[in-house]
């Protein structure tokens, strides 16, 4: 294919909110003396309880009040909303006629057409010299693995020729959580004794680099009419208990009404429904299969 200079240039940028700047926690001794610090080293090496020294960390959180503007594409996790800004610019001295933009997202399963939203022009328009045509696309990410954003630009030049070009932007979608036991949740994951109600326990680990506010974690039965109750060790109004730090693991316990289940028939009983928020209120939502 012959390479040529096009009248129109294409720029794509993922829209991200700034993140909070995090620092490593600074620990201090209860009593500031070199002897205490030496005793601490001895205690660490030889496990000597008699030389134990207490360390103080005035702030358990490593987040600061400073904001960091994203410089790279960043991580993208399943359950998030992918938002991207697209700009077409006429970099020539000629008019680009009948301009059109087609945006598609290729996943491991299928190719999804995305709607380009702009408040300036229609989907087909003329672009004058040094004029831009910009807008955004949005997509709720539901697939893992490699994704390719495909942008196809078509226009008619000053000679009446219909020209087009494509650009590809590749990114990877990862899991935000590691969940144990692994889904689908079957009967061996439940504890049942003396014909009492069935208890189910799930461990959820935050494997992102972000602080997550776990807004909702529910066990949804596959069949209707099954009563499920979450057993919480904290009050619903306690927002601190819902904050999940990077690499932190939290356990969730649910009680299932035994009378509503047919334990003799094999198969999954329920799935987890998880909703969370990031530091600036961005939503995330997934359901285990």
Primary descriptors:
mainly beta, 5-stranded antiparallel β-sheet, Immunoglobulin-like, 289 residues
CATH C-level class of the largest domain is Mainly Beta
- Cα shape: elongated
Helix content: under 10%
Tell me, rounded to a whole number, the average pLDDT.
78
Structural class: mainly beta
Main beta sheet: 6 strands, mixed
The low-confidence parts are 48-59
Our measurement of the CA-to-CA distance between the termini, rounded to an integer number of angstroms, reads 45 Å
Q: Over the alpha carbons, how many angstroms does the gyration radius reach?
A: 27 Å
Number of strands: 22
Order of helices and strands: EEEHEEEEEEEEEEEEEEEEEEE
Share of β-strand residues: over 45%
Tally of DSSP helical segments: 1
CATH second-level architecture of the largest domain: Sandwich
CATH topology group of the largest domain: Immunoglobulin-like
How many discrete structural domains? 3
Oligomeric category: single chain
């Amino acid at each position: 294919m012959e390479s040529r200079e096009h009248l129109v240039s294409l720029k794509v940028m993922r829209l991200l909110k700034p993140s909070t700047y995090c620092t490593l926690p600074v620990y201090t001794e209860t009593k500031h003396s070199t002897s205490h610090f030496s005793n601490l080293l001895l205690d660490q090496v030889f496990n000597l309880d008699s030389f134990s020294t207490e360390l103080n960390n005035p702030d358990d959180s490593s987040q600061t009040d400073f904001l960091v503007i994203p410089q790279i594409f960043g991580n993208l996790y399943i359950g998030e909303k992918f938002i991207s800004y697209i700009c077409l610019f006429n970099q020539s001295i000629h008019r680009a006629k009948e301009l059109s933009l087609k945006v598609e997202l290729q996943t491991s399963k299928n190719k999804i057409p995305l709607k380009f939203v702009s408040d300036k022009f229609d989907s087909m328009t003329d672009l004058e010299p040094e004029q831009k045509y910009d807008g955004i696309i949005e997509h709720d990410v539901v697939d893992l693995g490699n994704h390719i954003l495909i942008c196809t630009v078509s226009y008619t030049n000053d000679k009446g020729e219909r020209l087009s070009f494509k650009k590809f932007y590749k990114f990877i979608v990862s899991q935000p959580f590691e969940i144990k036991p692994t889904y689908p949740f079957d009967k061996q994951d439940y504890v049942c004794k003396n014909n009492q109600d069935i208890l189910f326990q799930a461990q959820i680990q935050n494997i992102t680099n972000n602080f997550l506010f776990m807004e909702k974690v529910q066990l949804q039965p596959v069949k209707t009419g099954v009563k499920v109750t979450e057993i919480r060790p904290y009050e619903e109004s306690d927002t601190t208990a819902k904050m999940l730090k990077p690499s932190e693991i939290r356990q969730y316990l649910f009680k299932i009404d035994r009378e509503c289940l047919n334990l003799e028939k094999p198969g999954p009983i329920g799935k987890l429904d998880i909703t969370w928020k990031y530091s600036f209120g961005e939503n995330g939502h997934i359901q285990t299969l």
